[in-house]
Write a structure and sequence with these properties.
Structural class: alpha/beta
Strand order of the largest sheet: 3-2-1-4-5-6-11
Bound molecules: nicotinamide-adenine-dinucleotide
Distance between the termini: 49 Å
Radius of gyration: 19 Å
Largest sheet: 7 strands, parallel
Number of strands: 13
Strand content: 15-25%
CATH architecture of the domain at 5-178 and 231-257: 3-Layer(aba) Sandwich
Number of helices: 10
CATH class of the domain at 5-178 and 231-257: Alpha Beta
Amino acid sequence: MGVNSIDGTVLVTGGAGYIGSHTVRSLREAGREVVVLDSLELGRREAVIDAPLVIGDIHDRDLVATTCNEHGVTQLVHFAAYKAVGESMETPAKYWRNNVAGSVDLVEACLASGVNDVVFSSSCSVNGTPDVVPVTENAPIHPESVYAESKAMVERILFWYGQTSDLRSVSLRYFNAAGASFDGRIGEDWTHSQNLVPLAMKALLLNERRLTVFGDDYDTPDGTCIRDYIHVADLANAHVKALDYLGRDGDTVAVNVGTGVGSSVLEVLNTTADVAGEAVPYDVGPRRAGDPVATFADPTFASDTLGWTANWGLREIVETAYTWYVSQVERAR
Ligand SMILES: NC(=O)c1ccc[n+]([C@@H]2O[C@H](COP(=O)([O-])OP(=O)(O)OC[C@H]3O[C@@H](n4cnc5c(N)ncnc54)[C@H](O)[C@@H]3O)[C@@H](O)[C@H]2O)c1
């Protein structure tokens, strides 16, 4: 909403979740006021620390409108969504309702309250299996799951709101978020996560079951899949930059948020072994259907448009994650 929107409060939906809670901290460190809206279905109250928290659902337009009005909200960062690819194929309606219809309800309520700046959590999965790496923003949109389609649809819906209203949006297409805060206070909950770093840490620290590496016969240097792991602190900072960009009247864009460096599954496991001083127990299983061999971002547009670049790499991801999960094990004792 014009040049002054960065003077107001940021509504952060899903701010009690993994990436949302890191972004809340980054925003506050940057001097922004925030208010979190989270159902706490998958988030944790402690992750918000002492930021204002409204417990509720993004479908609840009255609650969103009241929250915007009471807190002087001028910008929205929208994380709240379900994100389990496998589950999305089994129960698609859950994803259409929460990720797509929920976003429409939320945006309608925000627009009615004069909130026109939206930063949206999209995903590199909108591109499916990329034909060319590094992946640029011009790569074809080719979702390969209900989850990925839900992200692509919301990107398009936001684009069309830009045509039919004053709304402007930045869809941040995250690559693989990983790591924890450098002070060890917040990190990813490993209870539900299907991501490699938490699964590797679980295998290492809980000894419940061994990690499965899905395929080691790909056409890559060590035979395992390659991904772009981005430190959650870097990712959080991209949201601060995206809000600043919208505050400068930036146009609606989709931006890849990755480091530009691909790491293989075995590289992640070797780095983990290095940091922990102990090997991650793993078995090699068959390839998983739909897994791209290699995907990593071209971060040029993020740098040109938002002035954002990643500061951290795989080592810091694994170090901070290790410290966080060791603390979780100790807490549970
Ligand atoms: N983690 C990744 O690697 C990754 C990659 C690409 C995109 N994303 C996207 O980033 C966003 C955040 O991911 P995350 O890893 O922090 O997930 P998360 O599950 O930790 O956080 C999501 C939060 O949203 C809340 N929520 C869900 N539905 C809600 C609703 N209807 N109303 C209110 N709150 C609701 C949950 O309680 C949770 O706190 C998601 O939109 C996800 O699709 C994540």
